[in-house]
Amino acid sequence: MLGRRSFRPKVFLIWASALTLGLRGAGYLFDFLGNPSDLTASGHVVDSLGDPLPLEYSTADHGMSRHLLYMPNCTPRAVEQFPRDIFSQQQRKEGAILLHVVGVIYMFLALSIVCDSYFVPALEVLCDMLHLQTDVAGATFMAAGSSAPELATAVIGVFIAKDDVGLSTVVGSAIYNVMFVVSVCGLAANSAVQLSWWPLFRDCLAYLVSIVALIVVIMDEVIRWYESLMFLALYVLYIVFMFFNQPLEKYFVHRLRCFPPEASSVPDQVVVQYEKVSYSESHASENGNGSGAVSEASVQLTKNGRATSLESLSSNSEETATEIHKAAPEENPWHAPRGRCAYCIWLLSIPLNAVMYITIPDCRQDSMRKWFLVTFFMSLVWLSAFSFLMVWMITIIGFTVDIPDSVMSLTFVAFGVSLPDVVASVLVIKDGLGDMAVSNAVGSNVFDILVCLGIPWFLQTCVLSPGSTIQVYSEGLLYSSITLLSTVAILILGIHFNKWLLDKCISIVFMFVYIGYSILASMYELNVFGYFHPEECPSDY
Predict the structure, then answer these.
(1) pTM of the full predicted structure?
(2) For the residues of 190-223, what is the DSSP string, one character each?
(3) Where do the Sodium/calcium exchanger membrane region domain residues begin and end (predicted)?
(4) Which residue, 524, 473, 529, is CA-closest to 69?
């Protein structure tokens, strides 16, 4: 009893995180001390005497890593993959870069409007039509939708830029999704959110399988057509697994007693907010001569962050039966709000609202509800377009202020590409759907690895150049895989020791873990622990 009383889960989690970060740093240092003389400062392969070796030097006879044979003397700048800017480098340094900063902020506003007004409402209707559990929808449709910008960028990179798909952005966005997105969700929630263990365990298991598959595929530093096809097949199996989620959940939840019981065993029905139900009940009272009762309605309230089903509410009179609608009072985007700040934001969003109103059906309206699939896919189109513009602006900003592309891909670009995940997760967790928000964060990583890498690799090896292979530079594979595996462990252990509550305290711990990973990864990319990455090529962009 004394030992149990003295055990402090949060302190243990902090020390575990620090130990993981220390091991990662030690791995960098060991790699640096193990082979400091393999490369010169210019990126050439050298022998034991320090003399440069030719590029056709046989690594099989001298025991060197194969990636050194293919490593160029410099890497092209990422900004070269985007269209030319209307401003020159000199003009940007003289002040035009501020316009790009404004563009990034405006794209953030655009993504918020698309997610809040169209993407999330379409998901709610989709869950209702297909009778999906909210966590399943978050791990599949929501994860695929919010990761659509990453898929679009990867496909554009294959067909337009003709560039190999690097792993740094995938690793950066993966850490970002697991640690940062979950942390922001906990900080943005109105109160502590009670999570169910099964959705988190299920999605993390699928994520671990994806990581292992990634390690196995790129271990030999060559991607072949059947390996890319295996990635896509694994994601299909993941979808099939999700299809049988409900019977699997019942089977495991009743047999595993080491986890807390589910907050509610009833299936998810219709997702609504508490204030939306109050609105509908008030109308039911008016239409029902003051009885305020509802018959044969099946709705879902949010209580302490958990979805709870209410079914078959009895009525005092058969004539007063009224169905509770899922939609809240329709918001008019053309109605100016009160307050100077809100009015300024509304004024700036008028062009965006006009474009959205013309091109996307508003499925929140009863007359447009049947067009929810069009709403969903058109939302994906605009999410991809706005995210592409945001990443373009962020890349130009990084190039102008001379931030290395490797650091940008792990930090700012990962932020821009994964921003739809943040916005969508925050919106649903404010509705009390914690499982849906966390499933979106973890499920997005499964989609990123298996689909956002699998499709471009498949197109390159089977469509553009059948039978060809893709060379992968896997210098940081070991450290990247340890990073991804450790983030999953920290997430599960942190939530478990916190009694499956996502609160402010554990969210702050996750935020510091993300910052620590980002700093160590950036130091590695900047060759602080040794020369692992070539210098960047000069550019006249």
Answers:
(1) 0.66
(2) SS-EEPPHHHHHHHHHHHHHHHHHHHHHHTTSEE
(3) 101-243, 372-521
(4) 473
Q: Could you tell me if 194 and 306 are in contact, meaning their C-beta atoms sit under 8 angstroms apart? A: yes
CA distance 402 to 505: 36
* Closest C-alpha to 141, from 120, 158, 157: 120
| End-to-end Cα spacing for the chain | 66
Neighbours of 512 (CB within 10 A): 15
Between helices 245-255 and 225-243, what is the axis angle to 10°? 70
3-state secondary structure of 173: helix
SS3 content of the chain, % helix, strand, coil (to 5): 65, 5, 30
For the record, the structure tokens of 216 come out as: 């196995």
Say how far apart CA 25 and CA 30 lie, in whole Å.
Answer: 9
SS3 414: helix
For residue 403, the SS3 value is: coil
How big is the CA angle at 317 (ends 312 and 321), to the nearest 5 degrees? 50
β partners of residue 101: none
pLDDT per residue over 336-392, tens digit each? 888 888 888 889 999 999 999 999 999 988 888 999 999 989 998 898 888 888 888
CA 466, CA 423: separation in Å to the nearest integer? 39
Residue-range domains of the chain with CATH: 2-34+75-271+326-525 (1.20.1420.30), 272-325 (no CATH)
What is the Cα–Cα distance from 420 to 113, expressed in whole angstroms?
11
